[in-house]
Design a protein that fits this description.
- α8 (144-160) runs antiparallel to α9 (185-196).
- The chain folds into two domains: 6-139, Roll (CBS-domain), CATH 3.10.580.10; 142-224, Histidine-containing Protein, Chain: A (2-Layer Sandwich).
- The chain has 227 residues and is an alpha/beta fold.
- 34% of the residues lie in helices and 23% in strands.
- The chain contains nine helices and eleven strands.
- The chain starts with 5 loop residues before the first helix and ends in a 15-residue tail after the last strand.
């Protein structure tokens, strides 16, 4: 089973701006490519920030508001109303991911940081791509046949050995149904857990029976295939 990485689904870094890009340049790029944010890079292509529609809208939100508010918690956002370059507009520090990051980790980070896309960087912090929410969701466009083949080759045969032939697998709209009989309860639990990790799997319905109930003797790591 291949652990899908952001490098497998990301878009190559073709749309970005340098720190000295003007306000209007940023607006034009966002509108042209129909996106809501752009990575900002320095002279070495390292990501230094991200400029979004929200950053740009400060100019409209605070237009004509000249009253100083030294203790305003939003004074940083207010300062962007007069910003002219991406360097002054961008949000920092940027939330980025290395290209070897799993799509599961990327999805959690997007949710945690409440962002729609993440710049992808190499080992030196240089921009190599951008991964969006829609990129991550694309794994669920895998066909049912691809998923079933993955379950059989990457889960059943490696983890069940001789019992693999006793398990029947069907996949409909990404939902995997497993039936049959295996030797141990822990084996049935393990294959169900592993199957849920396969890209494109929406849900797992397991009715696997077992001959020996080893719940009282199995170690927690065994359910994850590590002991």
């Amino acid at each position: 089973m291949k652990d899908r990485k952001v490098s497998d689904v990301m878009t190559d870094a073709t749309v970005f701006v340098e720190e000295n890009a003007s306000y209007r340049d940023v607006v034009e790029l966002l509108m042209k490519h129909r996106i809501s944010g752009l990575p900002v890079v320095d002279a070495f292509q390292r990501v230094t920030g991200v400029v979004s529609e929200a950053d740009l809208l400060r100019k409209i939100e605070y237009a004509g508001d000249d009253e100083p508010r030294l203790f305003d918690r939003r004074r940083r956002q207010r300062a962007k109303a007069s910003a002219r370059t991406a360097r002054d507009l961008m949000s920092t520090p940027p939330v980025v991911v290395p290209r070897g990051t799993s799509i599961t980790t990327a999805a959690r980070l997007m949710d945690q940081e409440d962002v729609r896309r993440l710049p992808v960087v190499d080992d030196l912090g240089r921009l190599v791509g951008v991964v969006s929410r829609s990129d991550l969701l694309r794994v669920h466009l895998r066909t049912d046949d691809e998923i079933r083949t993955d379950v059989e080759a990457s889960v059943l045969r490696p983890f069940l050995a001789d019992d693999a032939t006793e398990v029947s697998v069907t996949v409909v709209d990404g939902v995997v149904t497993m039936s049959g009989r295996v030797d141990r309860w822990s084996a049935a639990e393990l294959v169900a857990r592993r199957t849920r990790q396969i890209p494109g799997v929406v849900d797992v319905i397991s009715t696997l029976g077992f001959t020996f109930d080893d719940r009282e003797v199995v170690t927690p790591g065994a359910l994850f295939g590590v002991g």
